[in-house]
Amino acid sequence: MVQKAKILLVDDRPENLLALEAILSALDQTLVRASSGEEALKALLTDDFAVILLDVQMPGMDGFETAAHIKRRERTRDIPIIFLTAINHGPHHTFRGYAAGAVDYISKPFDPWVLRAKVSVFVELYMKNCQLREQAALLRLQLEGGGKAIGDTKEPAGLLAELSARLAAVEEQAEALSKQLDDESADAAAVATAAHLERKLTGLRRALDALEPGTGSGAPSLPSQN
Question: Keywords on this record (predicted)?
Fold first, then answer.
């Protein structure tokens, strides 16, 4: 069973959170509410999120301050943030949002279809990264276990073939996603994230190829998961 991605919704108004849930429910992912910046930071301590939808205007800790805290934490600094605001103070206000680390800045009222499409891209990227980490962990277990996974009776060649097939499936999905981003002229941040994913896939493919008979006896280094 594929684990669902978590999406963090941050807004001090319950009606706005309800509206976001109605818009994003079609994605069939786990939606987590936070009614303040402090509550959002608390949720980020324990859970991993694919993307954060963050209201700019909130009492106490506003969206900009909340984003600054998120970007300072090593655990959460790479989570995409989409700012939502009911007002538009011009280019300077928008620039402040991007400077705070947002991948997008959307003024209310927004088009529900556009918002859902933007969020779905980051959910897909998150899921591909999760699959890549799983394949890398399995390969690392193979290398450390001397050819057999714990509790597995398959021969090394068979396991390598299985790993290669799983990786090929992820590679195919990543390629399709990259083409979709190119076709839709998506946000630069989404394109950059997809490119980073493809580089990690290439590194993992090289590591698998190095394990094939006749390609050398040294154990390959695995791609970084950062």
Answer: Coiled coil, Phosphoprotein
